[in-house]
Amino acid sequence: MLVMSVVGNRPQFVKAAAVWPHLEQGNTDQLLVHTGQHYDRELSEVFFEELGLKPPARNLDAGSGSHAEQTGRIMSGLEAVVAEAKPDLALIYGDTNTTLAAALVAAKASLPAAHVEAGVRSFDRSTPEEINRLVADVTSGLLLCPTQTAVENLTAEGLGDRARLVGDVMLDVAQKFGPIADRRSDVVERLELEPHGYFLATAHRAGNVDDPQKLGRVVEVLQAARELAPVIFAVHPRTRARLTGDGLITTLEDAGIVLIEPLGYLAFARLLRSARAVLTDSGGVQKEAYLAAVPCVTLRDATEWVETVESGWNRLVSLDPAAAVEALSELAELRDRARPDPGVYGDGMAGARVAAEIERWLTSLSTP
Ligand code: UD1
Ligand code: UDP
User: pTM value?
Assistant: First the structure.
């Protein structure tokens, strides 16, 4: 039996790193396909090196472009791989255009698909990620859910019979590589930061950075946070391009905000685990902050990771500087008196469960 895993961007390399070793130990053969959605070394190769993922067997080199261009290029490349390699199952991750393209190719080729991170919903259909999630869940036969909330979302959509609660694969990776990051990365020292004395920021959502007005407000939020503590901003290339185009790089630098390139997993994990709090619009970073007991302020109106908000460790502040400052001040004290419950995201064995569920499903599909 041949399992074709399809990955293409930063968060998917992290998620696949939790599953891959368990699939390798099992009874299936693996074909790892990189769609090429992310291609810069610091958004791609570094994750393979640091997280022990083996190099992809194929790279579709789809690259950047509009949604249609990017999705279409991935679909054409992947369709050819499916025709030639004849996998028995497609394994897809998360909510990006790589996920969407792979889900559609598998469905049209009548290739069974398993979706990791199924059932997650922000209920905001104005974002490309929500559309990608909805399509991937409708077309995939095995829906591997990170949380009970995700199972309930699928049940409400009539997809509960395909859902399996396996836990969150990002918890597996955080548990395994977090302590390694603390030992191996010297990024806190290199940037001359005081542990628990700075904020770590990321922002890359199209809804926040592609609109110049919204991007201006992201900058205002970071400026406001800088009044409380040093801000380290790890800048995604989409965001850097927009900031440069709008002349906002100098505004940030003049405010004393430290702009750095995207980091590899280990350096980023070390920075996050030592931060006083995180400001982000990333899905994965919200969750990683929660798992590291670091308060998070989310620069969005909605989140798919509702457990982080319900527990009080994450606050949605949209792009409101005053709300961000208030949340940062209030949440900073949280870590002195409490720890969040990582159990809502599983027990760190989600990758093993994904592999087991896939094998079971493949067996059931091949049994007449
Ligand atoms: C994509 C996902 C988003 C996810 C994010 C993870 C979609 C619709 N969006 O957003 O859900 O949170 O990945 O990081 O799939 N670029 C480079 N080098 C690269 C990759 C991108 O310079 O290696 C630049 C290009 O200018 C490109 C832009 O970043 O146009 C956006 O890249 P793209 O992959 O389209 O979307 P992301 O913003 O990365
Ligand atoms: N990440 C990283 N370096 C960075 C920023 C993020 O390694 O400079 C990691 C982060 O730890 C998490 C993943 O990238 O595992 C999240 O990806 P991203 O924020 O790009 O996408 P999202 O989760 O929003 O889809």
Answer: 0.98
